[in-house]
Amino acid sequence: MAQSKNATIDQIPVPISNVKTEVIEGELLLYDPRQTKAVYLNQPAAVIWSLCDGHRRVREIIRLIRDGYPDSKANLSEEILATLNQLYESGVLVASDHATVDRATDAATGKNLDRT
User: Where are the domains of the chain?
Assistant: First the structure.
């Protein structure tokens, strides 16, 4: 999997396996112990993060959000791509062209899941 700083709709965003998550006052905090760094996500970014499961392509994430929020802005795709770019740059997501089939991390809970 190659890390990318330019999200495209054909990529599959994959959370790195050791990210810890914590909800603080309704907001999501991601902590990467390798970098000793925390990433704060507001509610819209947390929704995007929760859909990054190592199996969905960016195009599917955009469709799910658009379907779930039909009154969303016209530039929704661009905002999702910008958020994914920030998550790539923060090091908590990597981009793949193939769905993960090995151990992966549930983006919402931070727990490892066996996807084999």
Answer: 12-100
Report how far Cα 105 is from the mean position of its chain's Cα atoms.
11
Locate tokens 């999702």: which residue?
80
Contacts of 68 (CB under 8 A, 6+ apart): none
Q: What is the CATH number of domain 12-100?
A: 3.90.930.60
Residue 80, pLDDT > 50, answer yes
Contacts of 30 (CB under 8 A, 6+ apart): 19, 20, 21, 38, 39, 40, 41, 49, 90, 92
Report yes or no on whether pTM surpasses 0.70.
yes
